Amino acid sequence: MKLHRLELTGFGPFRQTQAVDFDAFDDDGLLLISGRTGAGKSSILDGVSFALYGTVPRYEGGEKRLRSDHSFLTDPTEVRLEFTVGQTRWRVTRAPEYDRPAKRGGGITTETARAELEELVDGSWVGRAAKPRTVGEVLGDVLGVNAQQFQQVILLAQNKFSRFLLAPGEERQTLLRTLFGTKRFEQYRDDLEQRRRDAQRELSAVDARARTLLGEAERLIDEGGLADGRADGEERPADLADRRAAADHALQRAEYRVEQAATAQDQADAAHAAHAAAHAELVQRAQRGRDRAAARARLTELQEREPLIAADRARLERARAAATLRTPLETTERAERAHADAVAAAASAAAAWRDADGDPEGDVRATLDALTGELARWQAALAHEAELERAAAAVRDLERERRVVGELLTAIDQQLALIPDERAAIDEQLAAADQAASRVADVRATLAGAVDVRDAAREAATLATEVAAAESAYADAVAVAGAAGARVGELLRQRLAGYAGELAAGLVAGEPCAVCGSTEHPRPAHRAGDPVTDDDLAEAERARDVAAAAEKQAAGVAHEARQRHATVRERSGGIAPDAAAAAVAAAEAQLRAAEEAAAAAAALRDRRAELDELTAAAETERAALAERALRAGEQHAAVAADAARLEAMVAEARGGYDSVAVRLAATTVQRDAARALVDADAALAERTRSRDAARADLQALLAASPFTSADDAVAALLEESALATLDATIAEHRAALTAAKQRLLDLELDTAGDDVDEAQLAASATALADADAARSAAIAAHRDAVGTAARLRGLLAQTDAAYADVAEAAEAAAIVTRLADTVAGRAPNTMKMDLETFVLAAELEEIVAAANIRLAEMSSGRYTLHHSDARAARGRASGLGIDVLDAHTGRLRPPQSLSGGETFLASLALALGLGEVVTARAGGIRLDTLFVDEGFGSLDPETLELAMRTLDELRAGGRTVGVISHVEAMKEQVPAQVLVEATPEGPSVIRQDPAVRR
Is the sign of the CA dihedral 411, 414, 416, 421 positive or negative? Predict the structure, then answer.
């Protein structure tokens, strides 16, 4: 991983955008970030960490004060970082959550945190993610390390520089696993463990199956009574071979039983066949005797039915003769019915003619012709009568029209007379409304000013409370900052007073004193109370810095609140909120009155225009009504003349009737009755002729038939289905009689030895049933014997195969189990390290070896690091320990026993060694950039010279190392510098130019 450019805007102590071009230091390899204490040197590393992970090392456990306190409300806050991982160049931009002015409506709103990730593709930036969460997920895959690991190997922040050196095995294992990509070895271990469990389960399964199969075979042996002389309740042999041999003996006995059962079945089959043949012969003889008796009875029955069959033959012959007369009979019957209907119709027509005032003695046909002519004349008169009714209705309608039009003309004239007075009243009201409505614009402006004053008065009252709260918070922050500063001074005084006690606490009998070199310590100093440690001082200084920042922020908040309150109070003119609200209410009432007057004026204008339109419409309508009245008079005269002419014509056509329609209806009824009488007489004459002809034809046919009369022939008639049934019955009886005689003749000729009684049949059937039962029992016994032998043979074969599988599975499980236990750190693994830890331990050995090259030089050969594979207590990770060998004592000691400067040197050497080994690995992360934040101030000048010489040697490897320090000696030794300066106004700036790099 290599950093290229960092831009900080409104971040930490930087208000305006500040940039660091890391590419400008590629040729130098060693970069110094310097500046006065509190100027913001560490904020550069905070910006790198925030851009990549959204967090900063210094604020992990507390409030994230990322936005610059020097930023105005309208200033943005943003961090942008360009970097390369592998062959891909990325640019990430992040902004934290902060308050800003609202774009609409005034006030303050919260700007949400945002992030954007871009990739450089063909010279252009292409977006890859645009939300903090998705940016974090993509960067997690790209970087390969989390924020904590990044701060242990790349960005060595304040108070975290020695974390990798002093970390417990579990934390060191997590970091190394990520850096070297050894997660797969843990997967190898898990896969082997799963294979071990699978192999054990498979072994248990096949063993259980083998035991189940053998137990099933033994159960079958017991059920079949095949056991080898073992008494009831006696235990089976425990040895598997003895149980298997006993099963083979049982199989031999089962096969012997199969042979014996087969012989018994053959004998039972022969006996059953003999009994079955004898019984069948006896049954056949008995059946022939029963058939002969049945044939005699059937012949007798048929002979007894012969008289009935003879009667059926005679009936059939008469029915066939009557069938030839069926058509003449039916024709005569239809003619008789038609003649009777014609006689009744003629009588009914004569009665209707009489009812219609017809002359029964006169010429009906002549009367019919005369009536037909009269109906033609009355039909024309009926049309005149209908036209007369329509003319009378038209006369009435026109009279009503003339009356309505006259009334409408009178009403319109009355309305037109009222219009001049109403229009004058509207003009008077309109003038008054226009005068009141002319004040709307002035009143609206007055209301806007009153509303602004009222809002300002209310906001001033609210801000007054905020000002009081902000000033109270500022006073509290001043008190807290003073107490925190006093606490730092007190701890420094205690530390100086307790230095002798601390040195005395580290003395060991027989070892030289670090101050005087003596190996004897007769009067060591005593500690005065609890000692003050570096951590105590650092914690107090952090509390002081936090309190100072809080005081500064509270001061800014209070100043801003006072300014806002003064501005708003000036807008309100000092008026109280209640008085301002009353002024707004009065202005609103005036505005409502003016707007109502304007609305009334508009309505009056609309009313006047409407009145003018109504006047014009009324005049137009009056002219149309006058024209309508004239046309109605002319039409009334013409229609009245037509009605008088039609009245004279209709009166002549009515005669003595009420109307032409009544006279026409009466004449139509008389005409229809005459016509019906003429038609009925003609139909009666035709039906009489047809009846007489049918009677003559029927009498001629009856004379040539065996029947004496028509009724006799009708009684002999049968339907076709009855004829067919009767013929079939006669034929069936004839055939059955012939067959019965022939059957009886055949049976009479074959009667030798057929006399068998029921006792003989019963005895034979019993003997056959006994033979069949014996045969069935023999078959079942043979089947059971064969089935038992086959099942036992199959179970034993499956048992042998299953135990062969058990042996094979046991061998495979033993191999897998030993390998899995070894890889997982169990016996026979005497080191008790799993595979991944073993690999990481080898990597740690190389890291320690690389670190010792630097540490030996920086510590003048006194200290070397040693990898420890000692087993850790209480189940903690083993094999990843680090000890320090002190050449002065020749003893190993834990890293926690080193002093602050010694810890810094060991941590620096370990960090450099870690970077070299990780970079050398093909699958690991390439570490092209390393940052060290402080720690050089704890070194004496000679040791500092050694440390700087070691860092300077990194240039040959192409890596860039950035150190943050305010040590003056380092400014002289490192030419490539980035200077962070605090301006007199407060915000800091970053200077990076040839003048600084000198």
Answer: negative
Query: How many whole angstroms separate alpha carbon 825 and alpha carbon 864?
Result: 29
What is the C-alpha to C-alpha distance for residues 854 and 850, in angstroms, rounded to an integer? 7
Phi–psi pair at 748, nearest 5 degrees: -65, -30
- What's the confidence (pLDDT) of residue 582? 85
For strands 881-886 and 863-868, give the pairing: antiparallel
pTM over 0.85: no
Q: What is the mean pLDDT of the chain?
A: 79
* Range in 360-364, 693-697, 791-795 with the lowest mean pLDDT: 360-364
Positive or negative torsion for Cα 733, 739, 743, 749: positive
What is the DSSP-derived secondary structure letter of residue 26?
T
Residue 913, pLDDT score: 79
Strand stretches in 796-938, DSSP E: 863-868, 881-886, 891-893, 929-933
Q: Which residue has the higher pLDDT, 424 or 488?
A: 424
Beta bridge partners of 100: 109
Tell me how crowded residue 852 is: count the other CB atoms within 10 A of its CB. Answer: 20
Take residue 526 and report the two structure tokens written for it.
Answer: 């005593």
Which pair of structure tokens corresponds to residue 822? Answer: 């070894």
Q: Quote the CA–CA distance of 117 and 221 in Å, as a whole number.
A: 79
Residue type, 795: L
Report pLDDT for 19.
93
Task: HSE, CB side, 13 Å, CA atoms: give it for residue 973.
Answer: 20
Q: How far is CA 36 from CA 548, 701, 850, 965, in A?
A: 17, 157, 34, 9
pLDDT of amino acid 348: 85
Count Cβ atoms below 10 Å from residue 805 Cβ, excluding itself.
16
DSSP secondary structure, 294-352, as one string: HHHHHHHHHHHTHHHHHHHHHHHHHHHHHHTTHHHHHHHHHHHHHHHHHHHHHHHHHHH
> What SS3 state is found at 784?
helix
Identity (one letter) of the amino acid at 852? N
CB 179 within 8 A of CB 77: no
| Residue 233 parent element (H or E) | none
Contact 171, 777 (CB under 8 A): no
Question: pLDDT at position 510, please?
Answer: 66
841-851 confidence digits (pLDDT tens): 888 888 889 88
User: Taking a C-beta distance cutoff of 8 angstroms, is the pair 684, 345 a contact?
Assistant: yes
Cβ neighbourhood burial of 293 (10 Å; 0-12, 13-18, 19+): exposed
Distance in angstroms (rounded) separating the CA atoms of residues 601 and 918? 91
3-class DSSP state for residue 35? strand
Question: Other C-beta atoms within 10 Å of 707: how many?
Answer: 19
Which token pair is 865?
A: 């690091």
Rounded Cα distance, 859 and 83, in Å: 34
Greatest CA separation for the chain: 185
Q: 929: which strand partners? A: 960
Residue 898 CB-density burial (10 A; 0-12 exposed, 13-18 middle, 19+ buried): buried
What is the Cα–Cα distance from 162 to 341, expressed in whole angstroms? Answer: 138
- Tell me how far apart the alpha carbons of residues 574 and 563 are, in angstroms, rounded to a whole number: 15
Give pLDDT, residue 926: 64
> What is the bridge-based pairing of β-strands 960-964 and 929-933?
parallel
Cβ burial 397-411 (10 Å sphere, 16+ → b, else e): ebeebbeebeeebee
Measured CA to CA, the distance from residue 897 to residue 508 in angstroms comes to: 13
Q: Strand ranges (DSSP E) for 887-976?
A: 891-893, 929-933, 960-964
Residues 764 and 279: beta-carbon distance below 8 Å: yes
DSSP string, 566-586: HHHHHHHTT--HHHHHHHHHH
CA dihedral angle for residue 747, residue 752, residue 757, residue 763, rounded to 10 degrees: -120
Full DSSP string of 712-768: HHHHH---HHHHHHHHHHHHHHHHHHHHHHHHHHHHHH--TT----HHHHHHHHHHH
pLDDT over 60 at 753, yes or no = no
Within a 10 A sphere around the Cβ of 778, how many other Cβ atoms?
Answer: 21
Is residue 157 pLDDT above 70, yes or no?
no
